[in-house]
């Protein structure tokens, strides 16, 4: 990247997603009518015009002030038509930011952001940012619960490794840019999250059980059902991401609910919430399925003042009404899955 190019309007890139949330300064061509042509493989782009002035006088290190507190921002959210991204967009719009969503609609849905389409502070761009990474850095952890200093236990050639290693390399690259180019980054390690707007058939356990119970199908439990997971409601995650974005700490931070459930306990909560007669069907487990995953969130509590507030028994009914609405057109559900509308 040439210095002259770098001296153009700098942008601050915020990465949500997966396990990585990073802030990046990013040069963009002067023609703002074609922002998508210049987008890199990152998740959220933040523009702060006051920063643009400062940065031009310091051409070599494209750096932004720690945190992004205060003023109204123009923010690009990649994957913003997805489950987590769309709830983050709601929060940003709600507080007065101007938001551009870039999403290739691979798993995202226009319906998730439909309620913003007439808002002049909102723009949706269908575009592929070519980000190949998905899930978790800890793999099948040997330490329980997982603290951020734990390096994980990942089989590099297993069926799940493209997810786990993808997350890990995202963190590595973020930190390299941070150390090498002085770019502000933030890293979040997101644990299982559920809530309204979740993909109905994406194979995640909560959406599987809820959709199956609503459709009167048996809930499929893989293995003996004794493997544990923690489930965080999406509004808790969004609050954590906002605090991380606004704070001065790079992370990584575990963002998850430390409450631990076995798959069988989860199935029981779904039975209590939807249908006490819902059946359970056991299937052979998938290779490399982590036995336990539970975040240690002491660091986020201490440095971000964050912890989840919504229990599974409180959150699940809010997701169920959204699923009912989408599966059966039941008008009792919130029409756009907004958390504030429920
Ligand atoms: N939901 C969870 O439990 C959970 C847990 C851990 C990590 N995460 C991570 O959080 C992030 C968001 O998860 P989610 O549950 O909202 O998933 P999602 O599938 O609902 O959202 C992902 C969004 O990114 C879009 N997208 C994918 N590839 C793209 C590309 N190349 N260019 C542009 N857009 C693209 C999709 O269309 C979708 O809208 C993911 O990275 C996921 O791995 C989620």
UniProtKB/TrEMBL annotation:
It comes from the Eukaryota. Its EC number is 4.1.1.35. Belongs to the NAD(P)-dependent epimerase/dehydratase family. UDP-glucuronic acid decarboxylase subfamily. Residues 136-319 form the NAD(P)-binding domain. Pfam families: Epimerase (PF01370), GDP_Man_Dehyd (PF16363). Residues 75-128 form the NAD-dependent epimerase/dehydratase domain. Keywords: Decarboxylase, Lyase, NAD. Pathway: Nucleotide-sugar biosynthesis; UDP-alpha-D-xylose biosynthesis; UDP-alpha-D-xylose from UDP-alpha-D-glucuronate: step 1/1. The keyword NAD applies. InterPro entries: Epimerase_deHydtase, NAD(P)-bd_dom, NAD(P)-bd_dom_sf, UXS-like. This is UDP-glucuronate decarboxylase. One of its GO terms (biological process) is UDP-D-xylose biosynthetic process. Catalyzes the NAD-dependent decarboxylation of UDP-glucuronic acid to UDP-xylose. Necessary for the biosynthesis of the core tetrasaccharide in glycosaminoglycan biosynthesis. One of its GO terms (cellular component) is cytoplasm. One of its GO terms (molecular function) is UDP-glucuronate decarboxylase activity. Its cofactor is NAD(+). Gene3D superfamilies: NAD(P)-binding Rossmann-like Domain. It comes from Arachis hypogaea (Peanut).
């Amino acid at each position: 990247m040439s210095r002259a190019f770098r001296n153009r309007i700098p942008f601050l890139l915020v990465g949500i997603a997966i396990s990585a949330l990073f802030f990046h300064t990013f040069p963009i061509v002067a023609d703002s009518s074609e922002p998508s042509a210049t987008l890199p493989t990152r998740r959220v782009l933040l523009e702060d015009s006051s920063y643009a002035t400062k940065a031009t006088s310091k051409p070599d290190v494209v750096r932004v002030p720690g945190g992004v507190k205060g003023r109204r921002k123009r923010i690009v959210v990649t994957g913003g038509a997805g489950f987590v991204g769309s709830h983050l967009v709601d929060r940003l719009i709600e507080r007065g930011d101007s938001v551009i969503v870039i999403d290739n609609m691979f798993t995202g849905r226009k319906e998730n952001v439909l309620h913003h389409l007439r808002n002049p502070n909102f723009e949706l761009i269908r575009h592929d940012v070519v980000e190949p990474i998905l899930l978790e850095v800890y793999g099948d952890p040997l330490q329980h619960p997982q603290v951020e200093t734990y390096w994980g236990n990942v089989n590099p050639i297993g069926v799940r490794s493209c997810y786990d290693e993808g997350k890990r390399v995202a963190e590595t690259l973020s930190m390299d840019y941070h150390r090498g180019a002085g770019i502000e980054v933030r890293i979040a390690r997101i644990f299982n999250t559920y809530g309204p707007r979740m993909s109905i058939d994406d194979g995640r356990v909560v959406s599987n059980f809820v959709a199956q119970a609503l459709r009167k199908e048996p809930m499929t439990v893989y293995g003996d059902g004794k493997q544990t997971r923690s489930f965080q409601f999406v509004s808790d995650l969004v609050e954590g991401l906002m605090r991380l974005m606004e704070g001065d700490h790079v992370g990584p931070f575990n963002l998850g609910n430390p409450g631990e459930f076995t798959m069988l306990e989860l199935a029981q909560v779904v039975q209590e919430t939807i249908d006490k007669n819902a059946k359970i069907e056991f299937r052979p487990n998938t290779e490399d399925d982590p036995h336990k995953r539970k975040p240690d969130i002491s660091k986020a509590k201490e440095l971000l003042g964050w912890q989840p507030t919504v229990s599974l028994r409180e959150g699940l009914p809010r997701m169920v009404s959204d699923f009912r609405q989408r599966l059966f057109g039941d008008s009792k559900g919130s029409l756009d899955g907004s958390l504030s509308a429920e």
